[in-house]
Amino acid sequence: MSVSFIILAAGMGSRMNSDTPKVLHHIAAAPLLHHALTAARNLEPSRIVVVTGHEAALVTKSAEAFDVSVQCVVQDPQLGTAHAVAQAAPLLAEMGGEAIVLYGDTPFIRPETLEAMLHARARHSVVVLGFEAKDPGLYGRLVTSGETLEKIVEYQEATDEERSITLCNSGVICASAKTMFDLIARVGNGNAAAEYYLTDIVEIAHADGLSAGVVICDESETLGVNTRAQLAEAEAAFQSRARSDALENGVTLTAPETVFFALDTHIGRDAIIGPNVIFGPAVTIESGAEIKGFCHLEGCHVSRGATVGPFARLRPGAELAEDVHVGNFVEIKNAILDEGVKVGHLTYIGDADIGEFTNIGAGTVTCNYDGVMKHRTKIGKRAFIGSDTMLVAPVSIGNDALTASGSVITENVPDAALALGRAKQVNKPGLAIKLMARLKSIKAAKGSS
Ligand code: UD1
Ligand code: CA
Is residue 241 part of a domain? Predict the structure, then answer.
């Protein structure tokens, strides 16, 4: 059965008090919108349409960065949730299949919940996702009788009796695309807010003799973000769940509460993650790798048996093969480290390829940037880069080559060669004592004057 998603993301989110549109604020290193898109993509939909409005160009760019196949439409002006969904009609009305409406500011709806709604469609023409609210506040209320959803009343329109209902509308609605757009076309705006309410389709369905039902999920799934405080709450909720999931999946977290995950972090079984580790976007850690404390990782891949840190930084394009060791105060960016490479201490490796079993000495720097362009450093297999070597790129070091400590390497080094690129040392016998005596006498002369 084909499914299409309509993700509403036109609102400004004024309570965020921000220049950034609400759905582009981040949770777990990803825009809120990407969380909703991830939930949708999990169901392998035939189409996803994002309804943009406020800062449409920015929101569209972010949606396309998530997946080029996502389509965006602009809702201008914004006349309510039914009007927002109607903007997707030209793209979806002819599609057939099911249509599910999600909100771009509601990041935690689980794919299993969406599946349950699709199943409930066997019994009802319109299926609404509801939840029992601890504090129902201003949510729309679900008026039910037995299995049947009679109607959804917005808080502003509700009677006192209806306001006492605690079963609330999450906003997620599922129907066949055809039914969805047929019903929406007949929604009016004769209400307190003069808006076209998506929620009105339930009563219109009944008038057509169609049935509506409710699928109930936990309130935590429907957590929407309207304020910075809710954004922080949502971040905490995400992290807490990500930590439990990692532990459940066989990852050791020495101090779970100090580890921060991104939406797309992948960690294999039997990996060990020390305290105070931060995962930015696009990190994959394979089984059995170890990330020691205080590391910061983004856009990188760490293979089996590799060890990283403590205090290491892996930036986008860092690719660590099996059994690589990256030690303390090392930064790696856009570099491929083949099997068994060791970079133990105080080093910057950027824009580089390093062959297997090469050892990089303490204080090595790939001087990759000339102020205008970036250049690559290539190092062969089993090479030994002496401590405090400056590798001025573009430059290449051969297999089994060696650079002397303190060298500034500006020319290519052939296979098996020893490169010395430093001033020759000169020893002056006794000069240290003489020099000290002279300096002390200068100081004494100054003190007495
Ligand atoms: C809506 C529901 C309410 C439900 C609540 C759950 C309606 C009429 N009410 O109320 O029953 O309990 O969500 O959070 O549907 N949007 C657009 N274009 C518009 C209007 C809204 O894209 O013209 C988007 C917003 O950006 C937001 C979502 O739709 O992501 C919900 O809109 P919002 O105004 O927050 O609806 P609520 O009043 O919270
Ligand atoms: Ca809202």
Answer: no
